[in-house]
């Protein structure tokens, strides 16, 4: 059975193997309040805002198919990538969800894997601050340390986050948003093909966070040629965060089939 192209008899050339996937991540994030009325253009059909909270982040991932840890040594490029995203808190048929209207990554395999699972990923240049144990002022998170990250796509700086760490935290506001809802959209391109639009929930296995730090945040948002960040109307920037996360994604389950029809 082919999971992804390119097809070979061994399957080793496939750009993405099947799940489950392991993730270990560093995040620089900001919690904001938005004007829900003027941000409604970002809502998927049939949904509404569950709150006026939004979560924006830049991150760096180590990720691989479970059981493929040898790739960390064999080819580090195939297990590391960076990501930026905008997350909203929405409601669909009485249930609250975390939903991403925008997401960017810097590796092709991360793009394809995300698209299969319903994430709206695009390729971009992404950078994030790093800690190192031998750096006198950046050996670890501590009060007063300034960190940041940004997303640039094409000629546009889309998002830039800076956080001055203030204190340790014990909980992330985004944890109240609910499970992740994504959109799997596979349009037909010819006669007789299926045209699919479905909402799915991302199913996670083991998950934990560590090194949560809260601080003062600065946020810059700009639109790009085909990145309509102008549709997100931020009215207040709350706290910024640095944190680390580990989780496992098992796959997705159908939440709502919008349509699946034969294009004849």
Descriptive notes:
This protein is mainly beta. The protein has one domain (21-181, 205-250): Acetoacetate decarboxylase-like. 5% of the residues lie in helices and 57% in strands. The chain has two helices and eleven strands; from the N terminus they run E-E-H-E-E-H-E-E-E-E-E-E-E. It has a seven-stranded mixed β-barrel with strand order 1-2-3-4-9-10-11. The two termini are 26 Å apart. 31% of the residues are buried.
CATH superfamily: Acetoacetate decarboxylase-like
Helix/strand/pairing category: mainly beta
* Intertermini distance: 26 Å
Strand content: over 45%
- Tell me the radius of gyration: 19 Å
Low-confidence stretches: none
Average pLDDT value?
96
Question: Strand-and-helix sequence, N→C?
Answer: EEHEEHEEEEEEE
Gross morphology: globular
Secondary-structure arrangement, i.e. CATH architecture = Beta Barrel
Question: Would you state the CATH class?
Answer: Mainly Beta
Structurally, the number of domains stands at 1
Mind summarizing the main beta sheet? 7 strands, mixed, barrel
> Which range best describes the helical content: under 10%, 10-25%, 25-40%, 40-55%, 55-70% or over 70%?
under 10%
Provide the CATH topology: Acetoacetate decarboxylase-like
Supply database-style keywords.
57% strand; 7-stranded mixed barrel; Acetoacetate decarboxylase-like; single chain; mainly beta; 5% helix
Short description:
The protein has helices at residues 71-74, 108-116; strands spanning 21-34, 48-65, 80-92, 95-105, 121-123, 125-128, 146-153, 156-168, 180-186, 193-221, 234-263.
């Amino acid at each position: 059975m082919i999971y992804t192209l390119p097809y070979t008899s061994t399957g080793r050339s496939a750009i993405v193997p099947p799940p489950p996937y392991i993730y270990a991540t560093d995040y620089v994030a900001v919690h904001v309040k938005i004007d829900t009325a003027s941000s409604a253009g970002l809502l998927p059909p049939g949904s509404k805002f569950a709150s006026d909270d939004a979560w924006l982040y830049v991150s760096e991932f180590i990720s691989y198919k479970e059981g493929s840890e040898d790739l960390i040594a064999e080819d580090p490029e195939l297990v590391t990538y960076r990501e930026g995203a905008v997350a909203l808190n929405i409601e669909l048929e009485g249930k609250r969800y975390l939903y991403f209207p925008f997401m960017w990554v810097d590796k092709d395999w991360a793009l394809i894997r995300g698209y299969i699972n319903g994430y709206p990923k695009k390729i971009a240049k992404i950078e994030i601050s790093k800690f190192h144990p031998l750096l006198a002022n950046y050996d670890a998170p501590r009060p007063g340390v300034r960190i940041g990250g940004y997303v640039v796509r094409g000629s546009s700086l889309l998002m830039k986050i800076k956080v001055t760490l203030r204190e340790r935290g014990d909980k992330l506001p985004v944890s109240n948003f609910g499970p992740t809802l994504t959109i799997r959209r596979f349009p037909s391109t010819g006669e007789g093909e299926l045209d699919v639009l479905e909402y799915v929930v991302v199913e996670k296995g083991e998950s934990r966070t560590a090194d949560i730090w809260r601080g003062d945040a600065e946020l810059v948002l700009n639109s790009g040629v085909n990145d309509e960040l102008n549709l997100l109307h931020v009215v207040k920037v709350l706290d910024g965060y640095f944190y680390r996360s580990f989780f496992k994604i098992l796959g997705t389950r159908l939440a709502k089939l919008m349509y699946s029809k034969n294009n004849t």
